[in-house]
Automatic annotation (TrEMBL):
This is Polypeptide N-acetylgalactosaminyltransferase. Its EC number is 2.4.1.-. Pathway: Protein modification; protein glycosylation. It comes from Lepidothrix coronata (blue-crowned manakin). It holds the Pfam family Glycos_transf_2.
Length: 493
């Protein structure tokens, strides 16, 4: 029933050693049956829903690199045991050049014993999850393609609501609620239907609370799908013809990362939609560290992938990513002309449309006055978030001109924001704190009184100056020549 596995004291040394292999508790996973039972974590309203008898069938594509035996085969077993046979066309395992012996002949022999056709494809060389998925998708025959990570567990009734939604609208890409399988104890914990996907200025995927507008649109019915700005990436179903129409994946992306935001932006901007189907639950082992190597270096690979998606889909809003990530503009991202041509031929909408219509609560403001450092011209000190977290005070530090913690945006809502935090003066005479942006102005409203656009001026919060400096803030526009101050400033409203 998805309960935690507890390892006895005298085995914990061994357990810690084994943990390092996959960055999860392998000993715990190996102790659990491949077909373990799981609790039914669905909302009550989901348990009684009736889906059409006629639904499209699906191929399930699982890519893996050096995955553990027990997690991989528990994923496969849960797909087989909890999918109506008529809806499960096949399972395709794509081995991304794993080195582990047991993933070769033993795996092939094992899957032959299963009652659902399981095909194993092997990449000739390490290609990354994006190209491995492309290979699996190309070989698949189902009407729908369902992608899963190699350490998942599908729960009762996971598949029908996904397929039913695609049957209703073939241009909807659907994700289950992703439940948490503890990397430590393998306990199964229900995920929330009250979070959806977003991203920050660094282009990291993040979960954020489902906003009120989306609750209102569904008239409070939590069993209805949530329209989500982005997806986590690993677990989703898509109509196979639509997958091709919309441009599959960017095959120029390496190893890991970026493809989830790329597909999210693409689907929304090019006329599709992306949803979390809250009646479908699939568990995933969330890890704190990555267990495998990134040929080329982790940072380099992810920055390259992110540059590809920023260049093709984000228009001028890519500046948020570039200014906050020093050095990223030097990363070679290869040729994106094919992807740009795709965007043209599909007549996709601009990123500003996406921000306005799909993600108005985005961390990237659709309208803003400036983006860059906030400098006290007398002292040459810059406002600096010091890498601090929510509810801590904003700092000052020598201006370094390197972006990162010294990047702020003055938005059309008159917030001063650094990524997903806003300067906030709710404590009278207290320090200026960084809090979640609430879009309600109030203590997060800043007036800027420069007379020359882009010139020096002072920023004042409601009656409180920035306490650490005992001055108002001197203000200077970003030093980058290619984005002249206020070139994009929206008209004041
Ligand atoms: O080189 C590789 N080749 C592979 O085949 C690297 C990875 N892989 C396989 C790997 O074995 C696994 O099955 O690809 C799959 C995903 O890799 P993970 O499990 O290391 O990724 P993750 O769970 O940390 O990362 C999330 O973001 C990735 C960005 O590229 C992918 O989209 C993952 O599928 C995605 N996982 C999820 O969405 C599950 C929920 C996590 C969250 C939030
Ligand atoms: Mn994963």
């Amino acid at each position: 029933m998805g309960k935690a596995v507890l390892i006895p004291k005298d085995e914990q040394e061994k357990m810690k050693e084994l943990f390092k292999i996959n960055q999860f508790n392998l000993m715990a996973s190996d102790l659990i049956a491949l077909n373990r039972s799981l609790p039914d974590v669905r909302l009550d309203g989901c348990k009684t829903k009736v889906y059409p008898e006629e639904l499209p069938n699906t191929s399930v594509v699982i890519v893996f690199h050096n995955e553990a035996w027990s997690t991989l085969l528990r994923t496969v077993a849960s797909v087989i045991n909890r999918s109506p046979p008529r809806l499960l066309r096949e399972i395709i395992l794509v081995d991304d050049a794993s080195e582990r012996e047991f993933l070769k002949a033993s795996l092939e022999n094992y899957v032959k014993t299963l009652e659902v056709p399981v095909r194993i494809l092997r990449m000739e060389q390490r290609s990354g999850l994006i190209r491995a998925r492309l290979r699996g998708a190309a070989a698949s025959k189902g009407q729908v393609i369902t992608f899963l990570d190699a350490h998942c567990e599908c729960t009762l009734g996971w598949l029908e609501p996904l397929l039913a939604r695609i049957k209703e609208d073939r241009k909807t890409v659907v994700c289950p609620i992703i439940d948490v399988i503890s990397d430590d104890t393998f306990e199964y914990m229900a995920g929330s239907d009250m979070t959806y996907g977003g991203f920050n200025w660094k282009l990291n995927f993040r979960w954020y609370p489902v906003p009120q507008r989306e609750m209102d649109r569904r008239k409070g019915d939590r069993t209805l799908p949530v329209r989500t700005p982005t997806m986590a990436g690993g677990l989703f179903s898509i109509d196979r013809n639509y997958f091709e129409e919309i441009g599959t994946y960017d095959a120029g992306m390496d190893i890991w990362g970026g493809e989830n935001l790329e597909m999210s932006f693409r689907v929304w901007q090019c006329g599709g939609s992306l949803e979390i189907v809250t009646c479908s639950h699939v568990g995933h082992v969330f890890r704190k560290a990555t267990p495998y190597t990134f040929p080329g270096g982790t940072g380099h690979v992810i920055n390259k992938n992110n540059r590809r998606l920023a260049e093709v889909w984000m228009d001028d809003f890519k500046d948020f990513f570039y200014i906050i990530s020093p050095g990223v503009v030097k990363v070679d991202y290869g040729d994106v002309s094919v992807r740009k041509a795709l965007r043209e031929s599909l007549k996709c909408k601009p990123f500003s449309w996406y921000l306005e219509n799909i993600y108005p609560d985005s961390q990237i403001p659709r309208r803003y006055y400036s983006l860059g450092e906030i400098r006290n011209v007398e002292t040459n000190q810059c406002l600096d978030n010091m890498g601090r977290k929510e509810n801590e005070k904003v700092g000052f530090f020598n201006c370094h001109g390197m972006g990162g913690n010294q990047v702020f945006s003055y938005t059309a809502d008159k917030e001063i924001r650094t990524d997903d935090l806003c300067l906030d003066v709710s404590r009278l005479n207290g320090p200026v704190l960084m809090l979640k942006c609430h879009h309600m102005r109030g203590n997060q409203l800043w007036e800027y009184d420069a007379e020359v656009p882009g010139g020096s001026g002072t920023a004042r919060g409601t009656g409180v100056s920035l306490a650490e400096s005992r001055d108002c803030l001197g203000w200077k526009s970003p030093p980058r020549s290619q984005s002249p101050p206020c070139a994009r400033c929206p008209p004041c409203h």
